[in-house]
UniProtKB/TrEMBL annotation, chain A:
Gene name, Swiss-Prot/TrEMBL: pstA
GO molecular function annotations of the record: phosphate transmembrane transporter activity
Swiss-Prot/TrEMBL keywords: Cell membrane, Membrane, Transmembrane, Transmembrane helix, Transport
Record localization: Cell membrane
Gene Ontology biological-process entries: phosphate ion transmembrane transport
Protein name per its UniProtKB record: Phosphate transport system permease protein PstA
Claim: Nucleotide-binding is one of the keywords in the record: no
TrEMBL record, chain B:
Domain annotation ABC transmembrane type-1: ranges: 91-308
Family per similarity comment: Belongs to the binding-protein-dependent transport system permease family. CysTW subfamily.
Topology with respect to the bilayer: Multi-pass membrane protein
Role this protein plays: Part of the binding-protein-dependent transport system for phosphate; probably responsible for the translocation of the substrate across the membrane.
Annotated CDD domains: TM_PBP2
Gene: pstC
UniProt xrefs under NCBIfam families: phosphate_pstC
A GO biological process held by the record: phosphate ion transport
Main location: membrane
TM spans (from-to): 25-45, 52-73, 85-110, 131-151, 163-183, 211-232, 285-307
Subcellular location field: Cell membrane; Membrane
Keyword ATP-binding: no
Name of the protein described by the UniProt record: Phosphate transport system permease protein
Amino acid sequence: MATEDRTIDGFGQVSRTVGTVFRYLLLAATLIGIVALVILLLFVANDAIQPLTADPGWHLTFFATLVVPTLAVGGYLASRNQSAAAVGVGTIGLAVVTTMFAGGLSLIFVDIVDSITWAAAVLTLAVPTAAVVAIARVSNRSPLELLAVAVILYYVSLFGVPGPLRSVVGTGQLLPGVGSAVASIPVLPVDWMLLFATFTLPVAVVVRYYARQLVDDRTATAIVAVGLVAVAIAATAAPTAGITPVPATVLASVVLLPTMTYVTTTALSRPHDRVGLALPGAVFGGSLLGAVAVRTLGYAGPQAWVDWQFLTSAHSRNAIDAGLYPAIGGSILLMLTVAVLSFPLGVGAAIYLEEYAPDNKLTRLIDVNISNLAGVPSVVYGLLGLGVFVRYFGQPSGTVLVGGATLALLILPIVIISSREAIRSVPNELRQASYGMGATRWQTVKNVILPRSFSGVLTGTILALGRAIGETAPLIMIGAPDVLFSLPADLSSKVSAMPLQVFAWSSLYATPEFYQRAVPAGVVVLVSVLLSMNSVAIVLRNKFE
Amino acid sequence: MGTDDISAELTRNTKNAPPELLTRVFFFICAALSVVTTASIVVLLVSEAAKFFSVTAPLVGFAGETVSMVDFLTGTTWQVGSGEYGVLALVSATILITVGAGVISIPLGVATAIYLSEYASTRARSILKPALEVLAGIPTVVYGFFALIYITPAIQTLLPDTGTFNLAAASTVVGIMIIPMVASISEDAMSAVPDELKQAGYGMGATKFDVSTGIVVPAALSGIFSSFILALSRAIGETMAVTVAAGSQANFLPPWDPTSYLEGALPMTAAMIQLLLSDITGGGLAYRSLFAIGLTLFVLTLTMNIISDVITQRYREEY
């Protein structure tokens, strides 16, 4: 800036001090917020886990079995082979995230949907879908005929013959629907076998699809087959370890199957990075060894408030007995409802605006409107839920459906905006090539746009779902109860949620016991769920960008 | 929008084939749903709020207890129990929190944006940007708890007069929460500054400091300002953090007096939550006051969003 005066006696001499100071000031400013949050999170984790209440021997044992080996292996990998280190971290991350996910799913299969209902629902939808796909493959029918066939097949599958048309036709029920047929089979296989057939197998198909991208067809099939056998063994062996077969099946299918497949495919397709698998080995082996060691040596662990009891019991007036179980279940159900409602609607809107919309006033109105909706405070969405869903449509207040619909409306603009970005990043050449080959618009969307932008769309949706899980205000507005002692049984029962429970503890039960125990524990659970969702989204984005 | 004329030509013959028509109509309904949402928000807020004011209640054919609009807009006492609905008591708290959050988030956010767009290496960016996203992803009720349990005691050791519920702690966490918003929007604006301008600066012998403060920031000024407005509008609508940390007693505090920050008050959003939790009867005066505050909030945030839009549209430097 002041170079003009200096040109006379020292051209090009500029003090570096200002620039250096400025640079470090900027860095400090960038870090302040992050550091503040990390400190606060450490405080709350300390309150919830209380590491200092453990015996020194406990710390020493785990330091020796877990921390030292992990640091040694991690340091070696980070300095020698970065991509192997990434494989190691990826395996650990996959195991941790899938375990969390499996925990949520087990909760659903144990307490909300029993295996028979689930199997019946899956078959009801799968049978007609398979039939329609088969017909479309074999015969060359026009779309309208196919649609008619599909409608008939789904109708028969859902309601049987003649179903609700009974009164019109005037006969009794001749054939049951697939769902009631399954339910009426006199001798049903054991419930975990039903789950194995209708839950584990679809998971295996998805896992095999991803394995196919790294190894050849036969190897992928073999890996997944071994995984399926492992799941079956886990389910049969679980009762000996005191776990019922249903959650064991879910855990094994969601954790074991993908993690095993990831490990073996990586080991086969990237021989140089095999060494990275030592890192998860060090972490999990070390934890196991440490756990065995402290038990035999008799060292007491920390008195953490986040424990099995906290995760599996309901609220109590007594802070020590209070738990988060109904709130966890409520959050999971809400998240499923929100995902089911907002994903198709949000992606559909994004596709319309990016691929179909003509450049006219209506399009611009929708465009401006969406960006403004993203700025509407969440309480106002809560008012919308209260005024429209509860008061106008007469829905009972505080149900899963009303809460899910309100939260879905809340995150819809975010889903739309991020999906639009993902769709926009699909190169135009691909579209032109597709159109040039004579594809129609829908064919282009289905075969080119959606597959290419899927990971971006998924990232945005996961982030938006994270926002939905963290929201409290709209749930309060629609009348969700502060305290719920049981899981919601279906979509029209009252729902609580993790942030709502944390709010109830920190405002309505504002005693020091709750501040020191229940609330920090709830915060730790909530924040870990959100952080793992965020990291999944970030990994997805980095991988596919 | 993403299509050009050629693709329209190429797909014209198949445009109205059944699958095409069905999918197009479905996608259009999805997009139109957003307009329906806005329309229902506006209709709901206006119609319910109209039943709250004595001026407008006859217009919608509502006969019941109402409140004078002048009292609502100029009153400084908010006492639902005794029927006093002076929204200024709530607005003053909201203003204080918004200003406090702005004082924290604006300098930090802009500095972060400059660092990320001009100084940070690719590697540093790939770590810092997700970390900032996490800052915005923590649930607000958790921030409220942090403010109440950790930040308030810290403030109390410095200033012993501070109440258990106070605006200082609430504004601090709201400020931290909106840093990522200021940073990411400002950074987008800074990255959009063409490289030629910066290179011209360097070619003239300017240092990185000169280029950052003399070229990049002025060129991106409209984007930076619109980020301020959007972030402040977010702070106004922020609910759970202030509900937990700011207090539950409506209290008119002069926004120009810094000592107000040491006291507790009831911002608009927290007042709505409080009304909801206090067993109000559907359709009663308290219930309708909810929509009057909601309307005030909606109009306020909408105006700010529109202003921010206008600033980016009108004052954007075109290159």
